[in-house]
From TrEMBL:
InterPro entries: DinF-like, MATE_fam, MATE_MdtK, MdtK-like. It is found in: Cell membrane. Keywords: Antiport, Cell membrane, Ion transport, Membrane, Transmembrane, Transmembrane helix, Transport. It comes from the Bacteria. One of its GO terms (biological process) is monoatomic ion transport. The chain crosses the membrane at residues 45-63, 93-113, 133-153, 160-184, 196-216, 236-257, 269-295, 316-338, 354-372, 384-404, 410-431. It is a multi-pass membrane protein. GO terms for cellular component: plasma membrane. GO terms for molecular function: antiporter activity; xenobiotic transmembrane transporter activity. It holds the Pfam family MatE. This is Multidrug-efflux transporter. Belongs to the multi antimicrobial extrusion (MATE) (TC 2.A.66.1) family.
Length: 444
C-alpha cells in the first residue's frame, strides 16, 4: 500500500522536532550570551563555555545516539503494526545508556583539567573550563534519559511532547541563567560562569522529570525495567556500536576545530565559540526536517511502501534547501548585529565577522547532509552512515584543515574544512539511497 506525503504531514513532525531539537544548542547559546557579557573576564569565560560545550557535545553525541536507534526500531515496528513486540525495549535501552553516563562522570571528573589541556586551554580559561564542566557534567545522565525518551516518542510518530518538554527546559534555563550568573541584589550573589552551569543542570533535571511524566501518561511504553532483554536488543546495540564509531569520527572533527581555534588565542576561540554555536543552531533547525525524515522513513520502510519513501526524500530535499536558504539570508541580514549579542570585544567581533559568511553559505549544504543522515538512521542503516563519516573526517576534513592551517588561514581553515566535510557527508548518502530504493519503488 502506498500513500501520499504532503507538506502538512512533514511539518506536523518537523516543526515540533525542530523546536525540541534546538533545546541543547539554545542551552549552550544562552550560556554563551549571558557569560559573554559578565563584567569581568568575559572573553575568558566565553572561551571556557565554548571548550566545555564542545567536549560535552561529544559525550552527548556519542551516547545520545540511543535516540536514533530507539526511534528506528520503534518506527519500523509501528509501520509493521507490531509495536507490542518491542514495548519493553526503550526502558532497557535507556537503562544501558544512563548507566554508561555514570561511568563517564566518574572517569572524567577527576581528570577534567587534563582533558581541557588537550584543547590547548591554559591559565584562567583552563580554570573556568574546569569549574564549568564539574557542575554541568552532573546533568549528563538526565540529558541522556531525556534523549532516550525522545527517541521513543519519535518512533511513535510523535514530536509534540518532546517539543513541550524542550520549551519548558529552555525557558527555565534562560531565567536561571540571568538570575544565577548576574545574581539578585541582596538575595543571590552573582555566580558568573558557575551560575550558568547550575542553570543548565537544573533545566536538564526538570526536562528528565517531564519526559518521564509524558511517556508514562501519553504512550503505552513503560519505563519499568524488565528482563529478559528484548529480542531486538542485539540490533539496538549493533546500531549503537556503529553510531558510536561514527560519532567518534564526528568528534575528531569538533576536537580539531576547537583545539586549533584555541591555539590561535583567546579572541579566536571566543569568535569560534560564537560561530560554531550558531552553526549548531542552524544544524538543529534543519534537523527538524531530518527528524521528520528519520521518523517517517522508518515507518515507511517497516511497511515496505518504497514509492512513498522516494516521494518523501524528494520533498525533504526541497524543503530542507529552502530552510537552509532562509537561514543563510536571515544571517546575512543580521550579519553585524548578531555578534554583539554575545560579546562587545572588538577583537572577537572582528574575527567572528570575518568567517561568519562561511557558516551561512554552508546552510543549504547542511540541509542535504542532515536530511539524508536522518533518513538513513530511520532505515537503521547505521553501518553505511559510519563509513561515510569516517571517510569525510579522515580523508576530507583533517587533511584540508592541516593544509590550510599550515598556510596560516586560522579560522578560515576550520570553516572551509567544515564545508568540504559537509559536502563529503551528503553526496554519498544521496547516491546510495537512490541506488537502493528507486529499483525497489519500481517493483512496489
Amino acid at each position: 500500500m502506498n500513500t501520499t506525503i504532503n507538506l502538512k504531514q512533514i511539518n506536523k513532525l518537523a516543526i515540533p522536532a525542530l523546536i525540541a531539537g534546538i533545546s541543547e544548542p539554545v542551552l549552550s547559546l544562552t550560556d554563551a550570551a549571558i557569560v559573554g557579557n559578565i563584567p569581568h573576564n568575559a572573553t575568558e569565560s566565553l572561551a571556557a563555555v565554548g571548550i566545555v560545550t564542545t567536549f560535552l557535545s561529544m559525550l552527548i553525541w556519542v551516547l545520545g545516539q540511543t535516540r536514533s536507534a530507539i526511534s528506528s526500531i520503534v518506527s519500523q515496528y509501528v509501520g509493521a503494526d507490531q509495536l507490542h513486540k518491542i514495548k519493553n525495549l526503550p526502558a532497557q535501552a535507556i537503562f544501558i545508556v544512563t548507566s554508561l553516563s555514570l561511568f563517564i562522570i566518574l572517569s572524567t571528573f577527576p581528570f577534567s583539567a587534563s582533558i581541557f589541556k588537550l584543547y590547548n586551554a591554559s591559565g584562567l580559561i583552563l580554570d573556568y573550563s574546569v569549574d564549568y564542566y564539574k557542575i554541568r557534567v552532573m546533568g549528563f545522565p538526565f540529558t541522556l534519559f531525556t534523549i532516550g525518551v525522545f527517541g521513543a516518542f519519535r518512533g511513535l510518530q510523535n514530536t509534540y511532547y518532546p517539543m513541550v518538554i524542550a520549551i519548558i527546559g529552555s525557558i527555565t534555563n534562560i531565567i536561571l541563567d540571568v538570575v544565577l550568573v548576574y545574581g539578585v541584589e541582596d538575595i543571590i550573589p552573582p555566580l558568573h560562569i558557575k551560575g550558568a552551569a547550575y542553570a543548565s543542570v537544573i533545566a536538564q533535571i526538570l526536562m528528565a522529570l517531564c519526559s518521564a511524566y509524558y511517556l508514562l501518561t501519553k504512550t503505552p511504553i513503560p519505563l519499568k525495567l524488565s528482563f529478559p532483554f528484548n529480542k531486538e536488543i542485539n540490533r539496538f546495540l549493533l546500531m549503537i556500536l556503529n553510531l558510536f564509531v561514527r560519532t567518534i569520527a564526528l568528534n575528531v572533527t569538533l576536537y580539531y576545530a576547537s583545539a586549533f581555534a584555541t591555539s590561535y588565542g583567546a579572541s579566536y576561540i571566543a569568535a569560534y565559540t560564537i560561530a560554531i554555536n550558531l552553526w549548531f543552531l542552524g544544524a538543529f533547525i534543519i534537523d527538524g526536517y531530518a527528524s521528520a525524515g528519520n521518523i517517517m522513513s522508518g515507518k515507511l520502510y517497516g511497511g515496505k511502501t518504497y514509492k512513498t519513501l522516494i516521494e518523501l526524500s524528494n520533498k525533504l530535499i526541497k524543503y530542507g534547501i529552502v530552510v537552509g536558504l532562509i537561514l543563510a539570508v536571515t544571517g546575512g541580514v543580521l550579519y553585524y548585529p548578531i555578534g554583539h549579542i554575545f560579546t562587545k570585544d572588538t577583537a572577537v567581533l572582528r574575527e567572528f565577522q570575518a568567517i561568519f559568511w562561511i557558516v551561512l553559505a554552508m546552510q543549504p549544504l547542511c540541509a542535504l547532509a542532515f536530511i539524508f543522515d536522518g533518513i538513513f538512521k530511520g532505515l537503521g542503516k547505521m553501518r553505511y552512515l559510519r563509513n561515510v563519516l569516517l571517510f569525510s573526517t579522515f580523508v576530507v576534513f583533517v587533511p584540508i584543515l592541516f593544509f590550510l592551517d599550515s598556510i596560516d588561514y586560522k579560522l578560515y581553515a576550520i570553516f572551509i574544512a567544515l564545508t568540504f566535510w559537509i559536502i563529503a557527508r551528503g553526496i554519498p548518502l544521496i547516491v546510495k539511497f537512490r541506488k537502493i530504493f528507486i529499483p525497489l519503488s519500481q517493483n512496489n
